[in-house]
Batch of 2 targets.
Target 1
Amino acid sequence: KGPRVIIVGAGMSGISTGKRLWESGVRDLVILEATERVGGRMHKHNFGGLNVEIGANWVEGVGGDKLNPIWPIVNSTLKLRNFYSDFDSVVGNVYKEDGGGLYDEDYVQQRMDRAYEVDDMGTNLTKMMDPSGRDDISILAMQRMFNHQPNGPATPVDMVLDYFIYDYEFAEPPSVTSLQNTHPLPTEADFGEDNHFVADQRGFESIIHYIGSSYLATDANGTISDRRVLLNKVVRQIAYNNRGVVVKTEDGSSYGADFVVVSTSLGVLQSDLIQFTPQLPFWKLAAIYRFDMAVYTKIFLKFPRRFWPVGEGKQFFVYASRRRGYYGMWQSFEREYPGANVLLVTVTGDESRRIEQQPDSVTKAEAVAVLRNMFPDADVPDATDIYVPRWWSNRFFKGSYSNWPIGVNRYEYDQLRAPVGRVYFTGVDSADILINRIFKNEEYEVRGKYDNQAAEVNGKVIAEAK
Ligand SMILES: Cc1cc2nc3c(=O)[nH]c(=O)nc-3n(C[C@H](O)[C@H](O)[C@H](O)COP(=O)(O)OP(=O)(O)OC[C@H]3O[C@@H](n4cnc5c(N)ncnc54)[C@H](O)[C@@H]3O)c2cc1C
């Protein structure tokens, strides 16, 4: 019998890691999941009789030289209903803040062309940068360098286009996002620039169940139902030494194993939900804390009738507020679910945090007021239903996804997925790191400068000496 491995978390990365381990011959697996479901941040939610995606929604990166491994699963194997997202057409759908209708499309197109021209200059700039990341600058610094809005976007149109290009993707503003590590964006450069929106009642999460079905039992609907996936198991402590690990859950259970793989979000690692004993070393903590967990919130609204334009090129529309990120990005579901009268508005960052903390009735009133500014002649009715996901407040996620901030280099990124003793973490190729350890006794070498030092701050030991 081979080693026992515990995987913490049954989202995409936990279930995929289990598959890689299983295929390479590691058979004694246990997956501990805090919530009552498999799927994590891929999550369908029933909204007014319709399953909508409150987490991941797009297959990003289609149509390029290399094949995005998710794409054939979505499009061929499971045949999930999906729709090409035509973001180029937003230039024709930018609404004035004050009820004045649409901005002139040619004007918006010019501003968009300029913004993308500068963005391309940023991509060229990164080609000159040292691969270590030591020359990296923020996207905003790059924009200043090319004399593009040196003091930040000045008009509502420039502001909302800047928001559309950057915040709507990274969920953080250009002032904090690393230029070098987002230009080019590996997903786009490798897999292509097309994005496909998944709108299928089985949910985007069905790909996780499909991936898991190669080694886990599923029920008649293809949903993972394996005894080795234990739900409602909130891991609170991971004790490790050079002989093994002991994982303790909130309900008082203990699980021993040879290795543990932690697949929780960066936000969870930054919180105190899981206590590591001994404390993780300084280099690991520093890597965890210096990355950013961003917040991206998809607010769904249902209306008694449709009052927004539909048809070719009308799917995405934009509210050009003077206040950055104030209910800016709108999407209609008329193509995906005709007659459902559902709109999606996306907010990020501070707006997400603000909105998570207020009652949904207030959010609904704010969003409807914005719609009334955009469509002053339409007699916009009140929304009959609203759903506001709270990824940031949820202790099992603490945000939506990570963003690469300025000031973090490649080496520190590698430290994020680096194991600490018998504690492993998910990340690019991270299952192989554990497989190499198990079968070839190979150590993954990422050493921090402070590796062997104890660190003490205000009398509190934050990292033990080795
Ligand atoms: C709003 C939103 C929109 C997104 N849009 C897209 C998109 O369009 N396209 C795209 O490709 N990606 C998108 N993403 C990102 C994508 O969803 C994630 O990258 C991916 O699902 C992460 O999978 P994971 O397994 O790494 O983490 P998770 O899905 O977070 O899985 C980790 C699991 O660990 C569990 N857990 C947490 N703490 C504990 C604990 N203490 N004990 C036990 N279990 C625990 C969690 O419940 C969870 O199930 C989006 C994410 C969000 C939130």
Note: The longest strand covers residues 296-302.
Target 2
Amino acid sequence: MLKRIHVAVGIIQSGDTILLAKRHGHLHQGGKWEFPGGKVEPGETVAMALARELKEEVGLEIHGCTPFMELAYDYPDKQVFLDIHLVNDFSGDAHGAEGQEIAWVPMSELSQYSFPDANRPILDKLLGLNC
Ligand SMILES: Nc1nc2c([nH]c(=O)n2[C@H]2C[C@H](O)[C@@H](COP(=O)(O)OP(=O)(O)OP(=O)(O)O)O2)c(=O)[nH]1
Ligand SMILES: [Mg+2]
């Protein structure tokens, strides 16, 4: 039985655009576009993990976030629990702090990007919000 990995995920919004980052090829789900985030470490709250990961991965300081969705998904090789938050209060200029490609993508273009399979319900809800 694999241990389910708790992941803090941020949907970072600026106007009508959302920040995506491309996972490095060698990683789990490599080559796919993701919402920045990462594993909640022992002793951390999700909010702490989200703030740490967004600083480490895209160089942003977050000042507030709102719960958006929780999602359990079983990949053949990994079980994840995605704890997804909307972030629209932040400072700094986003950059790929780990050498990854990033993009601010208009909502209307999100469906053109390839995401990990777990993300389907996130996209459905986000695009639904846009109606
Ligand atoms: N950040 C993020 N992870 C996602 C998304 N969708 C999805 O299935 N995942 C999965 C991929 C990974 O198995 C896991 C995230 O873990 P990770 O490997 O990026 O964790 P991390 O940033 O802490 O990286 P590391 O320190 O272990 O290298 O969640 C998403 O939209 N964003
Ligand atoms: Mg990560």
Note: Residues 7, 9, 27-29, 34-39, 53, 78, 80, 82, 116, 118-119 surround 8-OXO-2'-deoxyguanosine-5'-triphosphate (ligand 1) (CB under 6 Å).
